[in-house]
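Archive transcription. Copying these from loose printouts into the bound notebook so they stop getting lost. Printout 1 of 2:
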Amino acid sequence: MIRLYKEDDINGIIRLWEEAFGDTEAEIRFFLDGCRKPLTALIYELDGKIASMLFLLEGDMHISGADYPSYYLYAACTLKNYRGRGLMAELLDSAKEIADKNGKYFICLKPAEKSLFDFYEKHGYKTVFTARITKYNAEKSLINDTTCNEIHPQLLRDSAFEGHSYFKWDRQSVEFAFLHNQFFGGNASTNRKGYSLYTSDGTENVVKETTFTHIEDVIRTISHYEKLVKIIFPPWVDAEGEIIPYAMITAVNSDGRNLIDSVENAYLGLTLD
Protein backbone atom coordinates (compact mmCIF):
# COMPACT_ATOMS: atom_id res chain seq x y z
CA MET A 1 0.00 0.00 0.00
CA ILE A 2 1.30 3.45 -0.95
CA ARG A 3 0.35 6.31 1.34
CA LEU A 4 1.57 9.65 2.62
CA TYR A 5 3.92 10.00 5.59
CA LYS A 6 2.50 10.15 9.12
CA GLU A 7 4.24 11.23 12.32
CA ASP A 8 4.21 7.71 13.74
CA ASP A 9 6.21 6.45 10.74
CA ILE A 10 9.45 7.82 12.20
CA ASN A 11 10.76 4.56 13.70
CA GLY A 12 10.15 2.66 10.47
CA ILE A 13 11.76 5.43 8.44
CA ILE A 14 14.82 5.38 10.67
CA ARG A 15 15.23 1.60 10.28
CA LEU A 16 14.98 1.80 6.49
CA TRP A 17 17.23 4.88 6.24
CA GLU A 18 19.91 3.30 8.45
CA GLU A 19 20.01 0.18 6.26
CA ALA A 20 19.97 2.07 2.96
CA PHE A 21 22.37 4.93 3.68
CA GLY A 22 24.27 4.02 6.85
CA ASP A 23 23.44 7.27 8.65
CA THR A 24 23.00 7.31 12.42
CA GLU A 25 19.66 7.81 14.12
CA ALA A 26 20.79 11.26 15.26
CA GLU A 27 21.62 12.25 11.69
CA ILE A 28 18.28 11.00 10.39
CA ARG A 29 16.34 12.76 13.13
CA PHE A 30 18.21 15.98 12.34
CA PHE A 31 16.73 15.86 8.84
CA LEU A 32 13.24 14.86 9.99
CA ASP A 33 13.11 17.49 12.74
CA GLY A 34 14.75 20.31 10.81
CA CYS A 35 13.26 19.95 7.36
CA ARG A 36 10.48 22.24 6.27
CA LYS A 37 7.02 21.28 7.51
CA PRO A 38 4.62 19.84 6.60
CA LEU A 39 6.89 17.08 5.37
CA THR A 40 5.77 15.38 2.17
CA ALA A 41 6.89 11.78 1.86
CA LEU A 42 5.52 8.69 0.16
CA ILE A 43 5.58 5.42 2.04
CA TYR A 44 5.25 1.92 0.60
CA GLU A 45 3.93 -0.20 3.44
CA LEU A 46 4.21 -3.95 2.99
CA ASP A 47 3.91 -6.79 5.51
CA GLY A 48 3.28 -4.24 8.25
CA LYS A 49 6.56 -2.37 7.70
CA ILE A 50 7.92 0.53 5.68
CA ALA A 51 9.50 -1.31 2.77
CA SER A 52 10.25 1.68 0.53
CA MET A 53 10.02 5.47 0.70
CA LEU A 54 10.93 8.82 -0.84
CA PHE A 55 10.72 12.45 0.26
CA LEU A 56 9.49 15.41 -1.80
CA LEU A 57 11.04 18.75 -0.80
CA GLU A 58 9.57 22.07 -1.95
CA GLY A 59 11.42 24.32 -4.37
CA ASP A 60 11.14 26.07 -7.73
CA MET A 61 12.63 25.33 -11.10
CA HIS A 62 13.94 28.64 -12.44
CA ILE A 63 13.77 28.76 -16.25
CA SER A 64 14.15 31.84 -18.47
CA GLY A 65 13.56 34.22 -15.59
CA ALA A 66 10.41 32.50 -14.29
CA ASP A 67 9.87 30.21 -11.29
CA TYR A 68 7.91 26.97 -11.59
CA PRO A 69 6.86 25.22 -8.34
CA SER A 70 8.60 21.85 -8.19
CA TYR A 71 9.80 19.08 -5.91
CA TYR A 72 13.27 17.79 -5.16
CA LEU A 73 13.07 14.03 -4.64
CA TYR A 74 15.30 12.93 -1.78
CA ALA A 75 16.27 9.77 0.14
CA ALA A 76 14.54 7.28 -2.15
CA CYS A 77 15.29 3.77 -0.89
CA THR A 78 13.96 0.24 -0.39
CA LEU A 79 14.72 -2.42 2.21
CA LYS A 80 17.18 -4.98 0.84
CA ASN A 81 14.75 -7.88 1.21
CA TYR A 82 12.13 -6.04 -0.87
CA ARG A 83 14.30 -4.85 -3.75
CA GLY A 84 13.61 -6.07 -7.26
CA ARG A 85 9.82 -6.10 -6.78
CA GLY A 86 9.10 -2.77 -8.49
CA LEU A 87 8.21 -0.90 -5.29
CA MET A 88 10.29 2.16 -6.14
CA ALA A 89 8.84 2.28 -9.66
CA GLU A 90 5.37 2.49 -8.15
CA LEU A 91 6.48 5.20 -5.72
CA LEU A 92 7.94 7.24 -8.58
CA ASP A 93 4.64 7.06 -10.46
CA SER A 94 2.76 8.08 -7.31
CA ALA A 95 5.17 10.97 -6.76
CA LYS A 96 4.28 12.37 -10.18
CA GLU A 97 0.57 12.11 -9.35
CA ILE A 98 1.06 13.90 -6.03
CA ALA A 99 3.20 16.59 -7.68
CA ASP A 100 0.60 17.24 -10.39
CA LYS A 101 -2.20 17.33 -7.79
CA ASN A 102 -0.21 19.88 -5.75
CA GLY A 103 0.35 22.18 -8.70
CA LYS A 104 4.00 21.34 -9.37
CA TYR A 105 5.61 21.40 -12.79
CA PHE A 106 8.67 19.21 -12.24
CA ILE A 107 10.36 16.71 -9.97
CA CYS A 108 14.15 16.87 -9.79
CA LEU A 109 16.56 14.38 -8.26
CA LYS A 110 20.23 13.52 -7.96
CA PRO A 111 20.95 9.79 -8.49
CA ALA A 112 23.09 8.43 -5.67
CA GLU A 113 25.17 6.36 -8.10
CA LYS A 114 26.04 6.57 -11.81
CA SER A 115 24.20 3.32 -12.48
CA LEU A 116 20.93 4.86 -11.26
CA PHE A 117 20.82 7.37 -14.12
CA ASP A 118 19.63 4.53 -16.38
CA PHE A 119 17.01 3.45 -13.84
CA TYR A 120 15.49 6.92 -13.55
CA GLU A 121 15.65 7.48 -17.31
CA LYS A 122 13.39 4.44 -17.74
CA HIS A 123 10.89 6.24 -15.50
CA GLY A 124 10.79 9.46 -17.51
CA TYR A 125 13.66 11.43 -16.01
CA LYS A 126 16.02 13.41 -18.22
CA THR A 127 19.59 14.47 -17.39
CA VAL A 128 19.61 18.27 -17.72
CA PHE A 129 21.61 19.21 -14.62
CA THR A 130 25.37 19.18 -15.03
CA ALA A 131 28.30 20.42 -12.94
CA ARG A 132 31.84 21.52 -13.66
CA ILE A 133 34.31 19.68 -11.42
CA THR A 134 37.53 21.60 -10.89
CA LYS A 135 40.51 20.41 -8.84
CA TYR A 136 43.00 23.00 -7.72
CA ASN A 137 46.22 23.03 -5.73
CA ALA A 138 45.81 26.10 -3.56
CA GLU A 139 48.72 28.42 -2.89
CA LYS A 140 49.36 29.31 0.74
CA SER A 141 50.09 32.86 -0.38
CA LEU A 142 46.40 33.51 -1.08
CA ILE A 143 45.06 35.76 1.67
CA ASN A 144 42.00 34.41 3.41
CA ASP A 145 39.07 36.77 3.03
CA THR A 146 36.11 35.82 5.18
CA THR A 147 33.85 38.29 6.89
CA CYS A 148 30.51 38.36 8.60
CA ASN A 149 28.06 38.91 5.76
CA GLU A 150 24.72 40.47 6.54
CA ILE A 151 23.27 39.43 3.18
CA HIS A 152 21.32 36.19 3.51
CA PRO A 153 22.85 33.31 1.49
CA GLN A 154 19.54 32.71 -0.29
CA LEU A 155 19.73 36.23 -1.74
CA LEU A 156 23.39 35.75 -2.68
CA ARG A 157 22.49 32.47 -4.37
CA ASP A 158 19.60 33.83 -6.41
CA SER A 159 21.60 36.90 -7.43
CA ALA A 160 24.53 34.76 -8.61
CA PHE A 161 22.42 32.23 -10.56
CA GLU A 162 19.80 34.58 -12.06
CA GLY A 163 19.81 34.33 -15.85
CA HIS A 164 20.48 30.59 -15.78
CA SER A 165 18.33 27.50 -15.30
CA TYR A 166 18.64 26.21 -11.74
CA PHE A 167 16.73 24.68 -8.85
CA LYS A 168 15.75 27.54 -6.58
CA TRP A 169 15.40 27.06 -2.84
CA ASP A 170 13.55 29.44 -0.52
CA ARG A 171 15.11 31.15 2.50
CA GLN A 172 14.18 28.43 5.01
CA SER A 173 15.49 25.64 2.78
CA VAL A 174 18.82 27.38 2.19
CA GLU A 175 19.21 27.93 5.94
CA PHE A 176 18.52 24.25 6.55
CA ALA A 177 21.03 23.18 3.88
CA PHE A 178 23.72 25.25 5.63
CA LEU A 179 22.80 23.76 9.03
CA HIS A 180 22.75 20.27 7.51
CA ASN A 181 26.26 20.76 6.11
CA GLN A 182 27.47 22.04 9.47
CA PHE A 183 25.86 19.13 11.33
CA PHE A 184 27.85 16.71 9.16
CA GLY A 185 31.12 18.54 9.89
CA GLY A 186 31.14 20.98 6.99
CA ASN A 187 31.73 24.71 6.90
CA ALA A 188 30.31 27.77 5.20
CA SER A 189 32.42 30.86 4.61
CA THR A 190 31.34 34.21 3.21
CA ASN A 191 32.83 37.53 2.25
CA ARG A 192 31.40 40.66 0.68
CA LYS A 193 30.78 38.93 -2.66
CA GLY A 194 29.28 35.55 -1.81
CA TYR A 195 29.77 32.22 -0.08
CA SER A 196 31.37 28.79 -0.33
CA LEU A 197 29.82 25.74 1.32
CA TYR A 198 32.40 23.01 1.82
CA THR A 199 33.64 19.98 3.72
CA SER A 200 37.17 18.88 4.61
CA ASP A 201 38.59 15.42 5.27
CA GLY A 202 42.02 16.63 6.35
CA THR A 203 43.62 16.29 2.94
CA GLU A 204 41.08 17.82 0.58
CA ASN A 205 38.41 20.49 0.72
CA VAL A 206 35.31 19.75 -1.32
CA VAL A 207 33.38 22.90 -2.17
CA LYS A 208 29.84 21.56 -2.55
CA GLU A 209 28.42 24.90 -3.67
CA THR A 210 29.81 28.35 -4.31
CA THR A 211 28.36 31.57 -5.70
CA PHE A 212 31.78 32.65 -6.97
CA THR A 213 32.94 32.19 -10.55
CA HIS A 214 36.71 32.55 -10.03
CA ILE A 215 38.79 29.86 -8.34
CA GLU A 216 40.88 32.34 -6.36
CA ASP A 217 37.75 33.89 -4.83
CA VAL A 218 36.61 30.43 -3.73
CA ILE A 219 39.98 29.60 -2.18
CA ARG A 220 40.01 32.85 -0.20
CA THR A 221 36.79 31.93 1.57
CA ILE A 222 38.04 28.56 2.83
CA SER A 223 39.06 28.90 6.45
CA HIS A 224 40.50 25.39 6.94
CA TYR A 225 43.53 25.21 4.72
CA GLU A 226 44.04 22.02 2.76
CA LYS A 227 46.16 22.36 -0.34
CA LEU A 228 43.96 20.27 -2.63
CA VAL A 229 40.55 21.76 -3.34
CA LYS A 230 37.73 20.16 -5.35
CA ILE A 231 35.13 22.68 -6.48
CA ILE A 232 31.67 21.81 -7.79
CA PHE A 233 30.84 24.76 -10.03
CA PRO A 234 27.62 25.40 -11.96
CA PRO A 235 28.22 24.32 -15.57
CA TRP A 236 28.20 27.87 -16.95
CA VAL A 237 31.27 28.93 -14.93
CA ASP A 238 34.28 29.53 -17.19
CA ALA A 239 36.92 27.46 -15.43
CA GLU A 240 39.05 24.45 -16.17
CA GLY A 241 37.52 21.11 -15.28
CA GLU A 242 35.28 18.34 -16.52
CA ILE A 243 31.55 18.84 -16.98
CA ILE A 244 29.70 15.79 -15.68
CA PRO A 245 26.05 14.63 -15.60
CA TYR A 246 24.79 15.62 -12.17
CA ALA A 247 21.03 15.38 -11.74
CA MET A 248 17.74 14.72 -13.53
CA ILE A 249 14.28 16.16 -14.07
CA THR A 250 10.83 14.98 -15.11
CA ALA A 251 7.76 17.02 -15.99
CA VAL A 252 4.48 16.20 -14.24
CA ASN A 253 2.04 18.34 -16.26
CA SER A 254 1.59 19.49 -19.85
CA ASP A 255 3.11 22.93 -19.22
CA GLY A 256 6.18 21.30 -17.73
CA ARG A 257 6.49 18.97 -20.70
CA ASN A 258 6.37 21.96 -23.05
CA LEU A 259 9.16 23.64 -21.09
CA ILE A 260 11.49 20.74 -20.45
CA ASP A 261 13.20 20.75 -23.85
CA SER A 262 14.37 24.32 -23.24
CA VAL A 263 16.22 23.29 -20.06
CA GLU A 264 19.91 22.53 -20.53
CA ASN A 265 23.13 23.09 -18.59
CA ALA A 266 20.96 23.58 -15.52
CA TYR A 267 22.28 23.54 -11.96
CA LEU A 268 20.86 21.77 -8.92
CA GLY A 269 23.08 22.32 -5.87
CA LEU A 270 22.30 22.02 -2.13
CA THR A 271 21.38 18.36 -2.45
CA LEU A 272 21.84 17.52 1.27
CA ASP A 273 24.49 14.92 0.55
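Printout 2 of 2:
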Amino acid sequence: MSAVASEMVALLECLPRLGPVPRVQALHVPPPRADGTRVGEFCAIELDDGSLGMSFMLLGDTLAKLRAPTAGAALAGMPALQLARSYAGDSGAQRALGFAAVNALTSHLFRRARYVPPAAQGSLGDLDLRPGDHLGMVGLFPPLVPQVLATGARLTVVELRADVAGPRDGWEVTLDPNRLRRCNKILSTSTVLLNDTLDGVLGRCRHAERVALIGPGAGCLPDPLFSRGVTLLGGSRVVDATAYKTALREGEPWGAAVMKFAIARNGYPGFEPLLARAGDGAPR
Protein backbone atom coordinates (compact mmCIF):
# COMPACT_ATOMS: atom_id res chain seq x y z
CA MET A 1 0.00 0.00 0.00
CA SER A 2 1.34 3.42 -0.97
CA ALA A 3 1.71 5.96 1.84
CA VAL A 4 1.06 8.75 -0.67
CA ALA A 5 -2.18 7.09 -1.80
CA SER A 6 -3.31 6.63 1.80
CA GLU A 7 -2.61 10.29 2.59
CA MET A 8 -4.50 11.51 -0.48
CA VAL A 9 -7.53 9.41 0.43
CA ALA A 10 -7.33 10.57 4.05
CA LEU A 11 -7.45 14.20 2.92
CA LEU A 12 -10.44 13.55 0.69
CA GLU A 13 -12.23 11.93 3.63
CA CYS A 14 -12.59 15.52 4.89
CA LEU A 15 -14.88 16.48 2.00
CA PRO A 16 -18.08 15.57 3.89
CA ARG A 17 -17.43 18.71 5.97
CA LEU A 18 -18.73 20.58 2.92
CA GLY A 19 -21.93 18.57 2.66
CA PRO A 20 -22.92 15.61 0.47
CA VAL A 21 -20.05 14.25 -1.61
CA PRO A 22 -20.74 13.46 -5.28
CA ARG A 23 -21.42 9.95 -6.48
CA VAL A 24 -20.06 8.21 -9.55
CA GLN A 25 -22.05 9.04 -12.65
CA ALA A 26 -20.18 7.00 -15.25
CA LEU A 27 -16.98 5.27 -16.29
CA HIS A 28 -15.60 6.35 -19.68
CA VAL A 29 -13.23 3.97 -21.49
CA PRO A 30 -11.87 4.50 -25.03
CA PRO A 31 -12.84 1.93 -27.68
CA PRO A 32 -10.48 -0.79 -28.98
CA ARG A 33 -9.73 1.24 -32.11
CA ALA A 34 -7.83 3.67 -29.88
CA ASP A 35 -5.45 0.94 -28.70
CA GLY A 36 -1.83 1.81 -29.36
CA THR A 37 -2.50 5.56 -29.27
CA ARG A 38 -2.18 8.14 -26.50
CA VAL A 39 -5.98 8.38 -26.42
CA GLY A 40 -6.19 4.68 -25.62
CA GLU A 41 -4.08 4.95 -22.48
CA PHE A 42 -6.53 6.76 -20.20
CA CYS A 43 -9.99 6.16 -18.78
CA ALA A 44 -12.09 8.68 -16.86
CA ILE A 45 -14.51 8.67 -13.96
CA GLU A 46 -17.34 11.20 -14.12
CA LEU A 47 -19.14 12.32 -10.96
CA ASP A 48 -22.75 13.41 -10.75
CA ASP A 49 -21.69 17.05 -10.36
CA GLY A 50 -19.86 16.90 -13.70
CA SER A 51 -16.34 16.54 -12.28
CA LEU A 52 -14.03 14.30 -14.32
CA GLY A 53 -10.85 12.52 -13.33
CA MET A 54 -8.47 10.56 -15.56
CA SER A 55 -6.30 7.54 -14.85
CA PHE A 56 -3.70 5.54 -16.79
CA MET A 57 -5.09 2.08 -17.53
CA LEU A 58 -2.39 0.07 -19.32
CA LEU A 59 -0.89 -1.63 -16.27
CA GLY A 60 -1.51 -5.35 -15.88
CA ASP A 61 -5.01 -6.48 -16.82
CA THR A 62 -6.60 -3.13 -16.02
CA LEU A 63 -7.75 -2.39 -19.57
CA ALA A 64 -9.41 -5.78 -20.01
CA LYS A 65 -11.27 -5.44 -16.72
CA LEU A 66 -12.46 -1.92 -17.46
CA ARG A 67 -13.81 -3.05 -20.82
CA ALA A 68 -15.90 -5.79 -19.24
CA PRO A 69 -19.59 -5.27 -20.13
CA THR A 70 -20.62 -4.76 -16.50
CA ALA A 71 -17.72 -2.52 -15.41
CA GLY A 72 -19.51 0.80 -15.84
CA ALA A 73 -22.85 -0.38 -14.50
CA ALA A 74 -21.20 -1.67 -11.32
CA LEU A 75 -19.84 1.80 -10.58
CA ALA A 76 -22.86 3.98 -11.40
CA GLY A 77 -24.28 5.52 -8.24
CA MET A 78 -21.38 4.45 -6.03
CA PRO A 79 -20.21 7.08 -3.51
CA ALA A 80 -17.11 8.63 -5.04
CA LEU A 81 -15.25 8.43 -1.74
CA GLN A 82 -15.88 4.70 -1.60
CA LEU A 83 -14.31 4.26 -5.02
CA ALA A 84 -11.44 6.64 -4.17
CA ARG A 85 -10.47 4.38 -1.26
CA SER A 86 -9.54 1.71 -3.82
CA TYR A 87 -6.54 3.83 -4.79
CA ALA A 88 -4.89 2.86 -1.52
CA GLY A 89 -5.45 -0.85 -2.27
CA ASP A 90 -3.45 -3.42 -4.19
CA SER A 91 -5.68 -4.46 -7.10
CA GLY A 92 -4.57 -3.03 -10.45
CA ALA A 93 -7.94 -2.25 -12.02
CA GLN A 94 -9.57 -1.12 -8.80
CA ARG A 95 -6.55 1.01 -7.97
CA ALA A 96 -6.71 2.72 -11.38
CA LEU A 97 -10.42 3.42 -10.88
CA GLY A 98 -9.74 4.66 -7.38
CA PHE A 99 -7.10 7.05 -8.70
CA ALA A 100 -9.52 8.37 -11.33
CA ALA A 101 -12.02 8.98 -8.51
CA VAL A 102 -9.31 10.75 -6.47
CA ASN A 103 -8.65 13.01 -9.45
CA ALA A 104 -12.37 13.67 -9.99
CA LEU A 105 -12.86 14.56 -6.32
CA THR A 106 -9.83 16.84 -6.48
CA SER A 107 -11.44 18.61 -9.44
CA HIS A 108 -14.66 18.84 -7.43
CA LEU A 109 -12.82 20.47 -4.51
CA PHE A 110 -10.89 22.88 -6.71
CA ARG A 111 -14.06 24.06 -8.41
CA ARG A 112 -15.89 24.57 -5.11
CA ALA A 113 -12.88 26.46 -3.75
CA ARG A 114 -12.74 28.59 -6.91
CA TYR A 115 -9.16 27.49 -7.43
CA VAL A 116 -7.95 27.29 -11.03
CA PRO A 117 -4.53 25.62 -11.34
CA PRO A 118 -2.08 27.79 -13.31
CA ALA A 119 -1.63 26.96 -16.97
CA ALA A 120 1.56 25.08 -17.84
CA GLN A 121 4.16 27.20 -19.57
CA GLY A 122 5.72 24.33 -21.52
CA SER A 123 6.06 20.57 -21.88
CA LEU A 124 9.11 20.25 -19.64
CA GLY A 125 7.36 20.74 -16.35
CA ASP A 126 8.50 24.37 -16.05
CA LEU A 127 11.95 23.08 -15.09
CA ASP A 128 13.87 26.02 -16.59
CA LEU A 129 16.57 23.77 -18.05
CA ARG A 130 19.91 25.41 -18.82
CA PRO A 131 23.42 24.38 -19.88
CA GLY A 132 25.04 22.65 -16.93
CA ASP A 133 21.80 21.06 -15.72
CA HIS A 134 21.52 17.27 -15.64
CA LEU A 135 17.94 16.11 -16.15
CA GLY A 136 16.80 12.73 -14.92
CA MET A 137 13.76 11.64 -16.92
CA VAL A 138 11.72 8.88 -15.29
CA GLY A 139 9.99 7.15 -18.16
CA LEU A 140 11.00 7.89 -21.74
CA PHE A 141 9.12 10.82 -23.31
CA PRO A 142 10.52 10.63 -26.91
CA PRO A 143 8.98 13.94 -28.10
CA LEU A 144 10.65 15.80 -25.22
CA VAL A 145 14.18 14.53 -25.84
CA PRO A 146 15.02 17.10 -28.58
CA GLN A 147 13.61 19.88 -26.40
CA VAL A 148 15.81 18.83 -23.48
CA LEU A 149 18.96 18.55 -25.59
CA ALA A 150 18.27 21.92 -27.21
CA THR A 151 18.59 23.59 -23.79
CA GLY A 152 22.16 22.34 -23.42
CA ALA A 153 21.24 20.15 -20.44
CA ARG A 154 22.50 16.59 -20.05
CA LEU A 155 19.88 13.84 -20.13
CA THR A 156 19.64 10.47 -18.40
CA VAL A 157 16.44 8.47 -18.82
CA VAL A 158 15.48 5.81 -16.27
CA GLU A 159 13.25 3.09 -17.70
CA LEU A 160 11.75 -0.24 -16.65
CA ARG A 161 11.95 -1.65 -20.18
CA ALA A 162 15.22 -3.41 -20.99
CA ASP A 163 14.53 -3.26 -24.73
CA VAL A 164 14.99 0.53 -24.82
CA ALA A 165 18.07 0.71 -22.57
CA GLY A 166 21.42 1.83 -23.90
CA PRO A 167 23.46 4.85 -25.00
CA ARG A 168 22.14 7.34 -27.52
CA ASP A 169 23.70 10.26 -29.34
CA GLY A 170 24.45 12.59 -26.43
CA TRP A 171 22.12 10.93 -23.89
CA GLU A 172 21.32 7.52 -22.47
CA VAL A 173 18.56 5.22 -21.23
CA THR A 174 19.36 3.16 -18.15
CA LEU A 175 17.59 0.59 -15.98
CA ASP A 176 19.42 1.82 -12.87
CA PRO A 177 17.26 4.23 -10.84
CA ASN A 178 20.27 5.14 -8.72
CA ARG A 179 21.48 7.24 -11.65
CA LEU A 180 18.85 9.78 -10.59
CA ARG A 181 21.11 10.70 -7.67
CA ARG A 182 23.46 12.40 -10.16
CA CYS A 183 20.72 14.64 -11.61
CA ASN A 184 19.88 18.09 -10.27
CA LYS A 185 16.47 18.22 -11.96
CA ILE A 186 13.92 15.44 -12.38
CA LEU A 187 11.02 14.99 -14.80
CA SER A 188 8.84 11.99 -14.06
CA THR A 189 5.80 10.47 -15.71
CA SER A 190 2.74 10.45 -13.46
CA THR A 191 2.50 6.68 -14.05
CA VAL A 192 4.70 6.31 -10.95
CA LEU A 193 1.56 7.15 -8.98
CA LEU A 194 0.13 3.79 -10.03
CA ASN A 195 2.99 1.36 -10.66
CA ASP A 196 4.47 1.20 -7.15
CA THR A 197 7.69 3.02 -8.08
CA LEU A 198 6.88 6.42 -6.56
CA ASP A 199 8.61 5.93 -3.21
CA GLY A 200 11.76 4.56 -4.87
CA VAL A 201 11.91 7.43 -7.33
CA LEU A 202 11.39 10.19 -4.76
CA GLY A 203 13.85 8.55 -2.39
CA ARG A 204 16.56 8.98 -5.01
CA CYS A 205 15.65 12.61 -5.76
CA ARG A 206 15.93 14.24 -2.34
CA HIS A 207 18.96 16.24 -3.45
CA ALA A 208 17.35 17.58 -6.65
CA GLU A 209 16.60 21.30 -7.02
CA ARG A 210 13.37 20.61 -8.91
CA VAL A 211 11.22 17.52 -9.25
CA ALA A 212 8.33 17.69 -11.70
CA LEU A 213 5.67 14.99 -11.95
CA ILE A 214 3.63 15.34 -15.14
CA GLY A 215 1.03 13.51 -17.21
CA PRO A 216 -2.69 13.63 -18.05
CA GLY A 217 -3.44 11.49 -15.01
CA ALA A 218 -1.73 13.85 -12.55
CA GLY A 219 -4.93 15.53 -11.41
CA CYS A 220 -4.65 14.55 -7.76
CA LEU A 221 -4.10 16.52 -4.57
CA PRO A 222 -0.45 17.61 -4.62
CA ASP A 223 -0.03 17.96 -0.84
CA PRO A 224 1.46 14.49 -0.10
CA LEU A 225 3.76 14.84 -3.12
CA PHE A 226 4.97 18.32 -2.19
CA SER A 227 5.79 17.13 1.32
CA ARG A 228 8.05 14.46 -0.22
CA GLY A 229 10.12 16.76 -2.41
CA VAL A 230 8.07 17.17 -5.56
CA THR A 231 8.21 20.83 -6.59
CA LEU A 232 5.70 20.81 -9.45
CA LEU A 233 2.67 18.74 -10.41
CA GLY A 234 1.56 19.02 -14.02
CA GLY A 235 -1.64 17.49 -15.35
CA SER A 236 -4.65 18.11 -17.55
CA ARG A 237 -8.04 19.36 -16.41
CA VAL A 238 -11.15 19.02 -18.52
CA VAL A 239 -12.53 22.39 -19.63
CA ASP A 240 -15.11 21.11 -22.15
CA ALA A 241 -16.72 18.02 -20.66
CA THR A 242 -19.02 17.31 -23.61
CA ALA A 243 -16.20 17.46 -26.15
CA TYR A 244 -13.90 15.42 -23.93
CA LYS A 245 -16.40 12.62 -23.36
CA THR A 246 -17.33 12.50 -27.03
CA ALA A 247 -13.69 12.30 -28.12
CA LEU A 248 -12.88 9.62 -25.54
CA ARG A 249 -15.92 7.55 -26.49
CA GLU A 250 -15.00 7.74 -30.19
CA GLY A 251 -11.30 7.14 -29.65
CA GLU A 252 -10.33 10.56 -30.99
CA PRO A 253 -7.78 13.07 -29.59
CA TRP A 254 -9.19 15.09 -26.71
CA GLY A 255 -6.38 17.61 -26.26
CA ALA A 256 -8.57 20.56 -27.31
CA ALA A 257 -11.02 19.75 -24.50
CA VAL A 258 -8.45 19.97 -21.69
CA MET A 259 -6.06 22.55 -20.30
CA LYS A 260 -2.57 21.57 -19.20
CA PHE A 261 -1.77 22.98 -15.78
CA ALA A 262 1.31 23.20 -13.58
CA ILE A 263 0.94 23.60 -9.81
CA ALA A 264 4.16 24.78 -8.20
CA ARG A 265 4.79 23.91 -4.57
CA ASN A 266 5.63 27.50 -3.65
CA GLY A 267 2.37 28.85 -5.11
CA TYR A 268 -0.12 26.22 -4.01
CA PRO A 269 -2.62 27.31 -1.31
CA GLY A 270 -2.73 23.92 0.44
CA PHE A 271 -5.56 21.49 1.12
CA GLU A 272 -6.92 23.00 4.34
CA PRO A 273 -7.14 26.57 2.97
CA LEU A 274 -8.88 25.22 -0.14
CA LEU A 275 -11.30 23.22 1.99
CA ALA A 276 -12.07 26.37 4.01
CA ARG A 277 -12.65 28.39 0.84
CA ALA A 278 -14.88 25.65 -0.55
CA GLY A 279 -17.03 25.82 2.54
CA ASP A 280 -17.57 29.59 2.56
CA GLY A 281 -20.27 29.60 -0.10
CA ALA A 282 -22.41 27.61 -2.46
CA PRO A 283 -20.87 25.16 -4.93
CA ARG A 284 -19.70 26.75 -8.18
